[in-house]
Amino acid sequence: MSPQRYRYSGYLRPITYIFDISVLSVVALQFGFSLLQWGCFVLFHALSWGILSVKLGFYEVYRITKVVRILSLIIQQSVIFSLIVFFYFHIFVDKNYESEKIFIYLGEIFLLITAYKLGIYFLLKKYRRFTGSNFRKIVIVGNSSSAQQLKQFFQNTPDYGYKLKSHFNMSSLSEAALVKNVMEYSIDKKIDEIYCSVSSLSNHTINELVDFADNNLITIKFIPDNKDLYAKQLKIDYYSYLPILSLRRIPVDDPLNQFFKRAFDLIMSSLVIICILSWLTPLLGLLIRLESKGPVFFKQKRNGLDYNEFYCYKFRSMKPDSAKANEWVKPNDHRVTKIGKFIRKTSIDELPQFFNVFIGNMSVVGPRPHPVSHTEMFVGKIDKFMVRHLVKPGITGLAQISGFRGEVETDYDIINRVKYDIFYIENWSLLLDIKIIIQTIFKAIEGDKKAY
What we know:
The chain is flat and about 75 Å long. It is α/β, with parallel strands linked by helices. The chain has helices at residues 12-27, 35-56, 67-93, 99-131, 145-156, 175-188, 203-215, 255-291, 338-345, 353-359, 372-378, 398-401, 411-426, 430-446; strands at 136-141, 162-168, 193-197, 219-223, 235-239, 242-246, 297-303, 309-315, 363-365, 394-396.
């Protein structure tokens, strides 16, 4: 097992969104609004722009997206947003406001936004072609005619940002040998994506490659034919005229969603740190130190996004004992202090992890991170366990509110925890995060039976 260490930049689309909103705001100064009027105008149109962008997929531009698609998105966005602007002036400003000034405003902002959007698109293509950077390393598996065409596509269009490292075919290898070679090569060369020709491989081989990719944080995609692939929601892209299917689409991988989730995390963590931890930390720190000598905070190495290790912080709830620090806490555990029983029962001991959220190695909601020693115990034993590391770990998660928190007593506990975590990863939304947070608060008040 060799988890992926490379992560594509998640900043380009949020930066583009900020640029667009800045253009809307600065160009609006020409209307001569008062500061209050200008603030209301910017707030209304920034929200409208964001909602419209999500609905139309305005920022859904990838390295394989064609210019025609980008121009189509710009036209759709400009037409609907123009109607919103005219609606705003009609309702909130002046029904008789000069239409010419509004048209000039709209023309200026869409000229700037179009120039920026196309400029970034072509600049990245040139950057990839001439510097050899910003590439994804890929392999193709299978020898169908579609696989050969995809190979030619990657070789002839380097500006799309894909570097074909190898093409594995069946000409001289058995399927078992082929799978072994693909796995070893992918780990050795740190491959980012595997493209499988469905018609060239048996279902058993495809399943083996899917499991391998999941457990090593490699993206797997399929070159389809008439076979029924999987009863899953598949995403389809077109490389030139070739359809390519992706098995798993992770909502949080979308940079705009990353931006919203990160903003939500920063707001939540800031509020908790300022409003709760600012006064609770010295109070709890005094009680913890009065009962037992040792640090106020307990820190432990855990695995997070892309399997990277980080220090996770909690209020210390047990007597210092480094020899047993990584053991699961059991009911009536003699290591737990009196104040520790209370803060563990109410989950107050987890609050310092909002510092982890603030600095960026955790999220408020996500799969709970395990200590490194426990992770090593489950990797290879529990199927798809590594999928949990495709997103940032969380203070709370869907598995925790569904009864699978705390000690792992049997394989049933960890298998179901992984299932809930994968469901969360594949179905993420801000509303789901809010729902999980609310249920976590209720469980903390009621007292979870596994919080010991």
